[in-house]
Amino acid sequence: MSDPNIAIVGGGPAGFFAAIACAEASPRARITVLEKGPRFLDKVRISGGGRCNVTHACFDPRTLADHYPRGGSALIGPFHQFNPNHTLGWFAKHGVPLKTESDGRLFPVTDTSATIVRCLIETATHAGVNLRLQSAIENITRQSHGAFLLQLSNNRTLECDRLLLATGGCRSGSAGHLATSLGHTLKPPVPSLFAFRLGFSWLQDLAGVSVPRVAVSVPNTDLCECGPILLTHSGISGPAILRLSAWGAPILNELGYRFPLRLNWFPDLTEADIARHLDTHRQQNGARQLATAPLPPLPSRLWRQLLTDTGLPLDLRWAQFTRASRQNLLTQLHHTQWNVEGRSLNQDEFVTCGGVNLNEVNFKTMESRICPRLFFAGELLDIDGLTGGFNFQAAWTTGWIAGRSMAISVSRSPASNHPSHEDLFQGVDPSGTV
Ligand SMILES: Cc1cc2nc3c(=O)[nH]c(=O)nc-3n(C[C@H](O)[C@H](O)[C@H](O)COP(=O)(O)OP(=O)(O)OC[C@H]3O[C@@H](n4cnc5c(N)ncnc54)[C@H](O)[C@@H]3O)c2cc1C
User: Above 90 in pLDDT, residue 405?
Assistant: First the structure.
């Protein structure tokens, strides 16, 4: 096989979307996707609990951008070009209808990520993209004539004149090194979207308990979120915790993942409101024990633990509940403090905060401002979203723009037979027709 004129390093969703967008826009371009692993699209396979949360039903670019703790403002322009509406259309046109769940998340109607994987691999193959597995790129050098020389792990080399780095989050391995070797700098990579580890032995009894609305915050920081929480065998998770970990990723990293976590179990009530709620509950349940008549809407297992932490006997009758006890319980319900001892390592969805500095990339084209003909897409950039399909959407958007831009860029080469810029970008329907 002759060397490609376009090489894409990374066979994840961003790399595949770029390869397809480029091939569909410029059918004569020779495009190769190089993946170091034994399978393509590994994260897509395991994503969304095996169902792949492809994107989110949020169609206004500015509102959508608010779901990205890092990279939101840089993405507003790109979202005008390719947003969840285009993602929906693109997958429908390529034979994969998506469905919207009540919370706005979009999944394939088949409810399996294998459908997305099959669609991307078949579409890329059909578009003539050359797909190569077990092809780790170890080094890249710029040739004097402007081409890139890629050094593979098996000592082979490959030359290309347009290069896309879509190597994913750069917390480990060579991903960051390839970008820095070409002159780029990285925002320090740290994890985002993780659960918190707690050291309480009683967690074993409370695993699985969830509360629909809790305010969680970290004292002496601006970090505060409100939403559902879930207790697990090792700590605390759920949407409110994941959002806190995303917005606070760099701060929590600086704290070494050891910090006090404040929980307000009644975020919509003042202390006076909770006091009244307690008094009414006391009057209605005077003959019952505190433990067997939990204060709504708290689940009984959690309620019992909060009573124990307040030092109240579980068998105390509500009629014997004193004013002094009421004050202690109020403080507990409004300001529970649990010490976080680390981040959960078995959390099944996390992304990288940090990566290639966004001011070094032109977001109209995804081309490097430092190294011409080098492009970026996906999580390698300093972009990360909340849970809900936002991370894949960033991969589809940046991949699509990078792919189209590489096609345009190739078409401008002097010796090229490729279509013109106007043919490629003007009036294009991003959902799939060229
Ligand atoms: C368990 C889990 C579940 C998730 N679920 C969802 C979800 O439902 N919805 C959502 O929006 N997001 C989800 N995410 C996040 C999402 O998977 C990522 O944001 C997304 O995969 C990033 O795409 P990418 O193409 O940039 O990187 P990746 O998917 O990481 O792909 C990069 C590829 O590059 C390859 N590579 C790296 N270095 C080299 C090299 N030197 N040479 C060759 N190849 C290389 C890697 O092997 C990898 O295959 C989930 C993440 C995890 C971990």
Answer: yes
Residue with tokens 């109209």, as numbered in its chain: 364
C-alpha distances (whole Å) from 190 to each of 194, 242, 399 are 11, 14, 23
Which residue among 43, 153, 349 is best mutated to probe the pocket of ligand 1, counting the most ligand atoms within 8 A of its Cβ? 43
Ligand 1 first shell, C-beta below 6 A? 9-15, 34-37, 42-43, 46-48, 52-53, 136-137, 166-168, 173-175, 348-351, 378-379, 389-392, 395
Are 350 and 194 within 8 A, CB to CB? yes
> From residue 90, how far is each of 4, 83, 98, 105, 142 by CA, in Å?
26, 10, 10, 17, 35
Give 371-381 pLDDT, tens digit per residue.
999 999 999 99
Q: What are the pLDDT digits (tens) for 285-327?
A: 999 999 999 999 999 999 999 999 999 999 999 999 998 899 9
Q: Is 183 helix (H, G, I), strand (E, B) or coil?
A: coil
Residue boundaries of the structural domains of the chain? 6-191+349-425, 194-347
Domain 6-191+349-425 belongs in CATH node 3.40.50.720 = no
pLDDT in tens, 249-298: 999 999 999 999 999 999 999 999 999 999 999 999 999 999 999 999 99
Ligand 1 centroid to Cα of residue 41, in Å, is: 7
Nearest CA to ligand 1 atom 35: 10
Mean pLDDT computed over every residue of the chain: 92
Distance of CA 168 to the CA centre of its chain: 11
Pairwise pLDDT comparison (52 vs 155), residue with the higher score: 52
